[in-house]
Amino acid sequence: MNNIAFNQELDCRGLNCPLPILKTKKAIDGMSSGDILKMVSTDPGSKNDISAWANRTGNALLSSGEHGSDFVYYIQKS
After folding, report:
1. What's phi and psi for 75, nearest 5 deg?
2. Is the pTM of this model over 0.70?
3. What angle do CA 56, 26, 62 make, to 5 degrees?
């Protein structure tokens, strides 16, 4: 689906808002600048949440897409 190399993967399947965002924030906070997090969620609300969160925090949403029932995001720490 996507050939972006990532440093860490976060599985948020089955979690509903706000948990995917909170777990994403915690994961990104523990990473180095420039590192890429792959986050997978089943919460349809995560589409708007992740985009808004990335814009607000200055982290780059490199890619987002759907793979079956999963929503997959690649976020680069600023």
Report:
1. -120, 130
2. yes
3. 50
Burial 14-29 (b: 16+ CB within 10 A, else e): ebeeeebbebbeebbe
Q: Which residue, among 35, 38, 34, has the nearest Cα to 2 in the 3D structure? A: 38
pLDDT at 1: 52
Rounded Cα distance between 61 and 72, Å, is 11
Please, what are the domains in the chain? Answer: 8-76 (3.30.110.40)
Instruction: Give the pLDDT confidence score for residue 10 in this predicted structure.
Output: 98
Residues noted as catalytic: 17
3-state secondary structure of 22: helix
